[in-house]
Amino acid sequence: TSTFSIYSFNANGLVHSVKMHHISSAISHRKPHVFVLNESKTNSQTAKNLPNGDYQIHEEPGVKTTNHHLYKWGVVLGVRKDIQVVQRLTNLHAALRGRIVVVDVALPQSGNTAHIHRVFGVYAPWD
């Protein structure tokens, strides 16, 4: 049997280059099939700082906080390029903006078939 690995953690902000380098190195070393980074706290694309040569990156940027220049939430989900992403679900409720990324992936099975598996990258804040 083969395994399916997911690497997930709360980044608590992805704006510092040292943190991005550490995260990118950890992903490159572990080579999970899927990784999820929660709480990016940025509205800019972080994919350019991740091992995107090996992964398809799907991002839900952070949401601007009220009366402030900062951003909250944000989710990044990467799927290794040797796994087919069938679709990304984009028609999600507005309350989930900045909190969730959902993709369907095709996991190969014997007999030239595939099992469709839905992968959620979710940040669930207390509020």
Automatic annotation (TrEMBL):
Entries under SUPFAM superfamilies matching the protein: DNase I-like
Superkingdom field: Eukaryota
InterPro entries, alphabetized: Endo/exonu/phosph_ase_sf
Protein name, entry field: Uncharacterized protein
Organism name: Favolaschia claudopus
